[in-house]
Amino acid sequence: MIELVGATVTAYGPPDAHGRAAVVTLLHPTTCTLTERRIAVIGANGSGKSTLARLLNGLVRPSAGTVTVDGLDTVRDGTQVRRQVGFCFTDPDAQLVLPTPVEDVALSLRRLDLAPEERTRRAREVLARFGLADRAEVPVHALSGGQKQLLALAGVLATEPTILVCDEPTTLLDLRWKRVVDDLLDGLDQQVVQVTHDLEAAARADRVLVVDEGRVVHDGDPGAAVARYVGLMTGGPPR
Ligand SMILES: Nc1ncnc2c1ncn2[C@@H]1O[C@H](COP(=O)(O)OP(=O)(O)OP(=O)(O)O)[C@@H](O)[C@H]1O
């Protein structure tokens, strides 16, 4: 269970003519308890969705308030929280660091106390589960965007987190690969919190948070959330 209590994120904005930077609020105080299996976060570009998502595993620290996962504080107990909450970025290149898929997944498994051969064997098993068995030794840079996104998810899920947070996991994918990743996410046992611009994916969620200008302006039923978002988006050109 993820719990935000007055969670607020501030940062320094751009410096003025005197070199002084004002503090800007990226996320206004937010309180909610996230227990549903499928949660979507939607909103305009720059509204604060990624900031909210990154709070959930401590990638971003609250400037005020708290974020806890099953009672563990994302600041105080950051390492334990990150073991429980896997995070997948929009761009898999931000996540894939080793030359081949098998090495990359084996790296994800480094926390398990395993001999190197056993770690490699497990990494191959994980790749097979994700339909990437025949890509195990192919250079990561030679994989398609869809294969890279699957690999990034495989690396995160290999560690068996109880919660998966994904920041626009299908934005860079063509329709075929988007379906593959959507099906994978829909079928997971884990709780999944997904930031998305895909309103069909949002409509399939159990609960949808709509973020606007750093505030959660709607939280609840997917149909009403999507309608709220569409209303916001048709209210004039972006600022
Ligand atoms: N570390 C930071 N310092 C200053 N401003 C930041 C920082 N991180 C994000 N921002 C700003 O906060 C706002 C919200 O950013 P965020 O990435 O959370 O939006 P988003 O809703 O995920 O956008 P998108 O849909 O475009 O990915 C943006 O205006 C962004 O430029």
From TrEMBL:
InterPro entries the UniProt entry points to: AAA+_ATPase, ABC_transporter-like_ATP-bd, ABC_transporter-like_CS, ABC_transpr_CbiO/EcfA_su, ECF_ABC_transporter_ATP-bd, P-loop_NTPase
Domain ABC transporter: 2-238
SUPFAM superfamilies to which the protein is assigned, alphabetical: P-loop containing nucleoside triphosphate hydrolases (SSF52540)
Keyword vocabulary terms for this entry: ATP-binding, Nucleotide-binding, Transport
A UniProt-annotated Pfam family: ABC_tran
Tagged with keyword Transferase: no
GO molecular function, one term: ATP hydrolysis activity
GO cellular component terms attached to this protein's record: ATP-binding cassette (ABC) transporter complex
Keyword flag Nucleotide-binding: yes
Domain of life: Bacteria
Family per record: Belongs to the ABC transporter superfamily.
Name recorded for this polypeptide: Cobalt ABC transporter ATP-binding protein
